[in-house]
Amino acid sequence: RVAIPGRFRRAVQLRTSTDALRPALALDAEVLKGDSGSPVLRVSDGRVMGVLISRQAAGEDGISRVAYAAPIDALRSWLSGAPPDDRFYLLPR
User: Fold this and answer.
1) Residue 83 CA from chain centroid, whole number
2) 46 Cα distance to chain centroid
3) Which has the higher per-residue pLDDT, 23 or 16?
4) 3-class DSSP state for residue 41?
5) Residue 25 CB coordination number (10 Å)
6) Residue of 68, 64, 76 lying closest to 25 (CA atoms)
7) Which residues contact 50 (CB under 8 A, 6 or more apart)?
8) Over the stretch 75-88, which tens digit does the pLDDT of each residue have?
9) In the prediction, which pLDDT does 93 show?
10) Do 26 and 65 meet the contact criterion of CB atoms below 8 Å apart?
């Protein structure tokens, strides 16, 4: 895969399946099904700013033009509260 160009739109709050609100980054980026989990890198310094978590409904071409990423600071906070022996699944693409 190649890098997907994008532009930061604004900070938003997304509602989870449990009705909680979580911070997210709204991005202008053309993403496809399966792009979730991709790191969002800042062009100026290569810093990871977030992880792609969802997208708006795709058009007839299968492409979504707005993507949402979990901010890296929110992920750090969540991971710092995870017990040391917490188990995860890694799903190959």
Assistant:
1) 23
2) 16
3) 23
4) strand
5) 23
6) 68
7) 25, 39, 40, 69, 70, 71, 72, 75
8) 887 777 777 776 76
9) 53
10) no
